[in-house]
Amino acid sequence: MLEGILMGIDNLFEPLHILILLLAMMIGFLGGALPGISGTMLVIILLPVSYGLDTISAFILLTTIYAASVFSGLISAILFRTPGTPEAVATVFDGYPMTEKGKPGQALGIGILSSATGGVIGTLFLIFLTPILASFALNFSSPEYFALAILGLTVVASLSSGNLIQGFIGVGLGLFVATIGMDPLSGTERFTFGTLELIGGIDLIPVLIGLFAISEVLRKSKQDHTIEKEMQKVKTKVFDSGIINRIKNTIFRSAILGISIGILPGVGATTAAMISYSEAARWSKNKDEFGTGIPEGIAAPEAANNAGAMGAMVPLLALGIPGSATTAVILGAFVLHGLQPGPMLMTDEPGLVYTIFISLLAVNILIIVFANPFIRMFSKIMKVPYSALGPAIIIFCIIGTFAVRNSVFDIWVMLIFGIIGYYLDRMKFPLATIILGVVLGPIAEEEFRRALQMSQGDISIFFTRPISGVLLGLALLAFIIPLVNRIKKYKKA
Amino acid sequence: MRRNFLASKSYLVLSTMLLTLILLTACANTGDSASNEADNYPEREIEVYVGHGPGGGTDTFVRTITNQMSDIIDGEFNIINQEGGSGVVAMQNAMQQPADGYTLIGDSAYAVTTAAGTNEYGLDQVVPIARVQSDTYALQVKKGTFESIDELVSYAEANPGKIRIGAVGTMGIDEITARRFMKEAGVDMNYIPMEGAGEMHSGILGGHIDVMLEEVGPTMSYIEDEEFEPLVFFSEERIDDFSEVPTTVEKGWDLTDGVERYLMAPADTPQEIIDKLEDASKEAMETEEYQEYAENSYLDLRDGWMGSEDFKNKLEEDIKKYEEILAEIEE
């Protein structure tokens, strides 16, 4: 292993490779910050470029872009309520309220610190524990995925900012949106009304961008604008000892949680961020403050999504099984470069694998170094009057949404969700719960049905398997404890 | 005054609406009228719609072949991935573009989706340019579970419905082939539709499914690592590298279909352009780079090449065949 690490360092510190790393970081930063342009898309766009490079350069390029974009999605999430990448969706929940409180610099600082720490922890796990983690991930099958999704869904209470009924409506709406399209198990069309566009389902990104970004631009357009008022100072403070003390445990816990979820094939960093935010809220002493712009609310999803993104590399490199959409593209890239992804990759190509490890580590450390100047550059945009900035945000949202599937229909979906989001926002409806349903709904449904198919309809499969049993038990407790507490309160009163 | 106007609400609303409109128009891609000048073709970027996710077998095929073709015809290809409905969504969007040779389709499921009725564009509306790959299925298990196909079949006979057989997706060629196998072999297995190849591989590794229908290309690394073992190949003749593994034909099962990967174009595309692209894909297929990829991914177990005319006839027959099979399965 030590030999491999040294080989990786040796490989990375060639001038060309360093140059590619820095360039890829810039591309990843920029792309990740723009809404709709996700890491997956950047990797696809740069695939043809990678043909022309030697294998090691090509994979430094692709993996660095991925890691950098997962990080920089937080910038527009925090400043404009526009998640730059799907992974940054949960960062909006507390990041933007903190900006509204006039502390965008602090919010960004917390985000950067948590991202970098999460990423580094994730990479260290990746380097040292890949074989163990990979075999742990194999214990997960449909019942476990279902249980995990259910545990994630029970957090609706802490996301619904006190109004549980609205929370349930939100999750229900999200779950409904997730069912539109072709039934993944039987191929039946659901709620498509015979239109071809709906067969492919409603993608997460248009919903996300519509609900959060478009609705916010609409809301702001109703406000009175004076240019002076929009002149905000964004001072980024990455190291603030008071805050670090407050969030260090959250970062650490969320990073571990992020890794554990990230390594599961087919789940990925977006779910990791979502569940980690939920768990942070559940276990926090001040759970009522989540969603109002508190440091823990930014630290939890950011530490988790960066750690989760690194976790997604575990099954890819150890087993040749992609843990997320982006790693699926990287898997294809291995094939295009004449490599055989699978359990033999680490044995056959140790130089390549360790170079990927080391460059991921380098990227996550460099995030801290480069984030400040980059954010300073980016936050100059905050000085632009909103009358110009608002339309620009909408343009980027439209381009980004279109680019996901090259679908004009998705743009309409996004605009419609923008209007829905605007009115729901005015009613103080917890938008996060809708996203919770859209992200976790498909996992819960598909895996529930697949599990039942595996057991031929025997429902005990969910309880007799240890991991799934424990997760469902936790979900049940998570559901009952708040109810019991509430009943106790009523009795006292 | 000017400053006030810029900051005013109406300006914001107006500019937003205008820009939205401009963008929507730009995205709608009106395109030029079809030019018949095949000689100058291609004059701009050629878009290839792929109805399957990036990184998968069909996507990798399209990217590799077009990468070679771009040198041959001196043009650029742009791959557009539109997942959904086994390629139906991508087909629909491609058919809305002008048939001028600048819109192509890379597919692997056309015959099945057409037979199932989810794809509405018949062979009078799309023409194949060429089939490039004809892949070979195998039934694979985790090494050490079943020693041979006979053992698997006799176990399945003794324990109907107990064996979990995985393949990717629902009502696609994977499921159809898996069900045809069960019928031909006279066994009853529990079919589990998997979300993707990755999930299927981890399902076998983790013991969550017992057997899977999969080509050997994507699993070669596992086979070399002695994790997976192919029990039977869906082909007429034995495969060189696996001379000890029997074939379906030997077993008396009439099952040799596999996944075919090909390029298509709207039927109104000028014939000269189709010819030009057909020649280019043939040449691309013969390049050293392509051959190396095909060999690495075990895509060369069967001759993949089939020209436009021949393949059109084959598709016609396949659609009829799948219509019958689907009707049988649904009963």
From TrEMBL, chain A:
Q: Where are the transmembrane segments?
A: 20-47, 59-80, 107-133, 145-178, 198-218, 316-339, 351-372, 384-402, 408-424, 429-444, 464-484
Record's keyword terms, sorted: Membrane, Transmembrane, Transmembrane helix
Transmembrane as a keyword of this entry, yes or no, is yes
* One of the Pfam families matching this protein, by short name: TctA
Q: Which residues form the DUF112 domain?
A: 18-436
Protein name (database record): Putative tricarboxylic transport membrane protein
UniProtKB/TrEMBL annotation, chain B:
Report the domain of life of the source organism. Answer: Bacteria
Q: Which UniProt keywords apply?
A: Receptor, Signal
Please name the taxonomic classification of the source.
Bacteria, Bacillati, Bacillota, Bacilli, Bacillales
- Nuclease recorded as keyword: no
What range does the record give for the signal peptide? 1-28
Q: Name one Pfam family in it.
A: TctC
Protein name from the UniProt record: Tripartite-type tricarboxylate transporter, receptor component TctC
Q: Which Gene3D superfamilies match?
A: Bordetella uptake gene, domain 1 (3.40.190.150), Periplasmic binding protein-like II (3.40.190.10)
In the record, the note on similarity to other proteins reads: Belongs to the UPF0065 (bug) family.
InterPro entries according to UniProt = BUG, Bug_dom1
